[in-house]
Amino acid sequence: MTATSHAASDAVSDAVPAGQAPLRVGLIGLGSMGRHHARVIRATEGMDLVAVADPGGDRFGVAGDLPLLDSVQALIDIGLDAAMVAVPTVFHEEVALALAEAGVHTMVEKPIAHDAAAGRRVAQAFSSRGLVGAVGYVERCNPALRALRERLDRGDLGEVYQVITRRQGPFPARISDVGVVKDLATHDIDLTAWVAGAPYAQISAQVAHRSGRETEDMVVATGRLTNGVIVCHEVNWLTPFKERLTIVTGEKGSFVADTLTGDLTFYANGTVPSTWDQVAAFRGVSEGDVIRYAIAKREPLAVEQEAFRDAVRGVGSRHVTMDEGVATLNVVEAVLASADSGQVITL
């Protein structure tokens, strides 16, 4: 699936064909994300959570009446149709490759692996066996971004000029193995290419280390997509408020998607002519109508799991593929390379 291979309005199925048994699903990684995946898998029609594993224990009480397993092999031995991987990033490759070898369709939390080379190995392992491999870029399932993509696809903004994202907030205690680029900024890189319908052509970035950790905690990245859209990402763990905004500007105005609230607002270019000659001579825009859309809001994780379920069933292709996950990780590595070298990186 490419960034332009489907319209955002395509509905995700919420039903299972009659006569089909639920998918036997295993979950490995019972931390901050794993506990939510467990809850959603249990609530998703057509999915049956049959096994959970985490060698570090079950501090959130996710297992319930299931035995707590200590390895991916123990999980595989239960007998699975599909699996969800929510272990720390450094273990993604090891766990995903074991599941591929066992013939288990798998979704891996973002990013696909700790580096692009590992991501390519994981993607190849699943594609070569004809298995569904997905990456958990849940922001694509946010109602605000789905509504935004739908409106862009039908031309409501006209030509798209620019995408700006701001993803800021306090440091999350759940993170221990990667910096803010591989944790948070990877969301913005994925969603920007998806929303704008084109991959990255070049990127330039600056990072900062202000919290005493080995990895970076602030990044500002600017770049250009292959279709000419310019982009800017501001991401950090050092802002004392939480912000999750995607702003898309084009010939007819700007869309602002707030993924914290799931709201989408359109700021239209004004159509009232100016009689002030100095202003009228500037080929720009003026403020027009503002519309905040009433859109259906479902939990993004539920939409994501349904998309994965449907892909495994062979009745949908709305999941984020592992090839897309690798493409995003290539850009992530280019961001870090640019910050290190001070150079613009061409992809």
Automatic annotation (TrEMBL):
Gene3D superfamilies: Dihydrodipicolinate Reductase, domain 2, NAD(P)-binding Rossmann-like Domain
Domain GFO/IDH/MocA-like oxidoreductase: 146-255
Record-annotated Gfo/Idh/MocA-like oxidoreductase N-terminal domain positions: 23-137
PANTHER family for this protein: BILIVERDIN REDUCTASE A
Protein name: Gfo/Idh/MocA family oxidoreductase
Naturally occurring in which organism (per UniProt): Actinomyces lilanjuaniae
